[in-house]
């Protein structure tokens, strides 16, 4: 297939079925690893929670090895980018090929949650074609939530419920957005207490989104709620469900978001850059680059009496951009 | 029964079965209300998301009316305190009677989530005796998570999995806690941008917990992750599972926490005041007052080589107290 320039629909459907089965099987591996830890008895000494980190790394690697070998057996010509194999290379270059077929896989997103037996972890499998996510399969086995999507075909929860959650018509975003919205965000791993560092920029942005209208020198957004799950993949999936209205985050990687972006777009959502442009009120709302590490996602939105769904999304993007600060997560090869 | 001074074990077991069935039935009502909204078609005009607030209030009231009438039919002498009926009274007094049997019910915790079709909502039913929560039944139907507990009997997920998640032995809290912990917190409803108001005090406290060790003038706690679900009840349930290590919150009410406190204590957790005493390093770690609106919860913790589980919890309480600010959620009749 790698030699062909176009991807046929029947082929895409077959790859979709294969990806969904992979996500189911990998999800079972994650669940089994948790059950093993939860139920295990230790004859002497004590299980220090910190030591679970090693176990988790082993699970990460086992699940990625399973997914990679399954893909290589069925589609030997496809490129493969997985979190664990990527991390072993020293480069931080963006490696999804701009042409042809590739897979972008996070065997375990929400690792901290997994370590703590907290339900918000999942496997994330994306198939890309010419650099674009075409198929997404996300399985959160403890939550019993399987999210799947195929370009042009739609997005589903547990294979039967259309996203966004079967609503007809899909509600527009609130006229006063971000007021009335659920805002999802993550504290992330950069915890340096540097006055202008990412942690302070993030929390200033969270505060702007949360504070009353008129507060924060006019930047108060008075969102309906602020949520943090600790999984970028699930944040995107919950946007696709319509459960989160807005997700704003910097610092995650392509394997964290590739399947989720496919899911969200198929459900009717929008993903652009977390970092506000120089003129947030007029700059075009461009699709986020998969490797940009900076994402602002909006849930699917229906038309209102005065705007199209896309217009309500773009209006909300600009209102978020007006309230958030630039984050610094640059990498070589991606602007 | 109200006339008796002691509660017999057989009676408690019967009330437990009744409470669990109530939580199951009420959970089905919540799920049906969501499915009705998710699947409904509107012939003309548009479904404004904001208007869903009315629907939710109706669901709140319907579920509470069902629970209240069920209890009154079976236990006519028991006192009843539910969020909806309480809110209709003008008083903010604490109404759980100090003697005899009573029920403390939130028909729908996580209302904002429910409005947004976000999975983190639940019904919370507690039975108290002489002011103490004896039975808790919490049902999060979209998550398919039913949490139940009975004083002296234990705590369970979906009636079969013992909390904290069947682990044997239960791990102690990390030696360097709060480092290594999952910290759960909520942004809440008080969004006033007042320099020394609750929003700023909360976010300063969150920042202290999140920032690197040595940062924030020595208050950096470098927690492993910061989570916000938007439901106090589920925060407590997730502590009881062992998924969250620490939950710190002010502003919620007794119906938000009564069942969760019963659950967490039965699992082996601890609940004390969110507000640090004058001397956090030596003050006794007292049980939180059910009506205090200020809660700091610690997950169940096993013994380490050098400390009992209770000692690791108390040590962690003091480390949290050292990093958080006083919150102001006073009410008449409760210190």
UniProtKB/TrEMBL annotation, chains A, B:
Keyword Hydrolase: yes
Protein name: Inositol-1-monophosphatase
CDD domains found in the cross-reference section: IMPase
Cofactor(s) needed by this chain: Mg(2+)
Record-stated family: Belongs to the inositol monophosphatase superfamily.
Uppermost EC category: hydrolase
GO molecular function: inositol monophosphate 1-phosphatase activity; metal ion binding
E.C. code: 3.1.3.25
Known pathway: Polyol metabolism; myo-inositol biosynthesis; myo-inositol from D-glucose 6-phosphate: step 2/2
Domain of life: Eukaryota
Keywords assigned by UniProt, alphabetized: Hydrolase, Magnesium, Metal-binding, Quinate metabolism
Binding site for Mg(2+): 83, 106, 108-109, 256
